[in-house]
Amino acid sequence: MINQYPVWKYLLVTVVVLIGALYSLPNLYSEDPAIQISSTRTATIDSSTQEKVRNLLKQASLPYQSISQDARGLLVRFADTGVQLKAKDIIREGLDSGYIVALNLAPTTPGWLRAINAAPMYLGLDLRGGVHFLMEVDMDAAVKQAEERYVSDFRSTLRDKKLRYVTIARSQRGVEVKFRSADELAKSRDLIHEEFRSLVLQDEERAGDYYLIASLSDADQREVRKFALQQNITTLRKRVNELGVAEPIIQQQGDNRVVVQLPGVQDTARAKEILGATATLEFRLVDETHNVEEAVAGKVPAGAKLYKQRDGGHVLLKNQVMLTGDYITDAASGIEQQTGGAAVFITLDGKGASIFSNVTKDTSVN
Hints:
The chain is of the alpha+beta class. It folds into 3 domains: 24-121, ACT domain (Alpha-Beta Plaits, 2-Layer Sandwich); 123-268, no CATH class; 282-360, no CATH class. It has helices at residues 7-24, 47-59, 81-94, 111-114, 125-128, 139-160, 182-195, 218-243, 268-276, 292-296, 350-360; strands spanning 31-39, 66-70, 73-77, 99-107, 130-136, 167-171, 174-179, 199-206, 209-216, 249-253, 257-263, 282-283, 304-308, 314-318, 323-324, 328-335, 342-348. The strands form 6 sheets. A 4-stranded antiparallel β-sheet has the order 2-3-1-4, with helices on one face. Strands 6-7-9-8 form a 4-stranded antiparallel β-sheet. Strands 5-11-10 form a 3-stranded antiparallel β-sheet, with helices on one face. Helix 2 packs across helix 3 (81-94) and helix 6 crosses helix 8. The longest helix has 26 residues, at 218-243. The radius of gyration is 28 Å and the shape is elongated. The N and C termini lie far apart (89 Å).
C-alpha cells in the first residue's frame, strides 16, 4: 500500500528544498584575492583615497578587477595572488601611516544573492586555514596603572585640604606618602580614608620619617583585572573589524587570556602587528611656559615632552598625566557644532570629572 499525503505537504517540502538550494548557491562561487584598506582615527577614506589607490596601481602597471568602498573601507580585487602581494607593498608605501592595508579573500557572490542575505558558508581554521592567536593580558601592569592613578589623586586631595607631605610615589607595595610628623600622617590618613574608602591603608615609621602606604584591596584588584580583560577583548574586536575577517572567534580563556581565531587571513604578520599593538589614552596639559621652537631644536625642558602633530607641527606637553582612559565611562563620535568638524565626545566618571574640573578651572582649554 502506497502512503498518500496531502498535496500541501509535497508543496511545502518542494518550497523548503528550493529555498535551501537558493541559499546554498553562494558556496559555488570562488573567492578573489583582495586587499582591504581601512583607516585609523588619524585618516579618512573617501573618493580621493580611492583615486590615489587607483593611481598607485596604474603607475606600477598592476591590473586589478575592481575597487569598491563599503563600511569597512576600500576593497581592491585581483585576479591572482601574485599581483595581490605586489599591490600590497605598493599601496602600503604610497599611503600614509594612518591607513591599514591587509590581505584578504573576498567572496564573489552576485549582488542579487547578497540582496537576499545569501552568503557562503564560513569555514573554520581546519577547512579554510588562517591564524590562531592566544594572547595574555598583563594583569600586573593593569594593577600598576590603577595604583599610578592614585598618585595624582592623592596629590590633588592633600593640596586641596592644605595638608603637607614630603613625597608621593608608587612602590612595590602600593602608593607611599612620606610625612615629616605623625600628626600630618594622621590627618592625611583620615582624609584619604574618607575619599578613597576601598583602599587598604597602613602606617609605618622609618628613619624618623612617617609613611602612609595605600594599596588596592583584593576585591579591587580582581575588579581591575576583570575590567582590563574585557577592555582588551573589546579592543581586539574593533581591530579584527579593520582586517575585514568574516566570522572571527574572539573569546576569553581562563582569567587572563584571550583566544583569537581569524579564518582565511593570508597576511599573518600584519594581523599580529595590528592585534598586538599597544593602545593607551592619556590626558596631559600643554606646556605654555616654554618655547616649542627651542624644544624642536633639542632643548626640551625638564618635566615636558615634545610630540609631533598630524599637520606636521609640534606641541610641548607636560609629563604629568592629568587623566587616563580608566576614568572614561563612555565615548562617541559626532560633529562639533561650532566648526562642523569631526569630534569625539567622552563621558567621565565622578572622580575623573572632579579632577578635570580642578585642573582646568584656572586654565584656558581650546
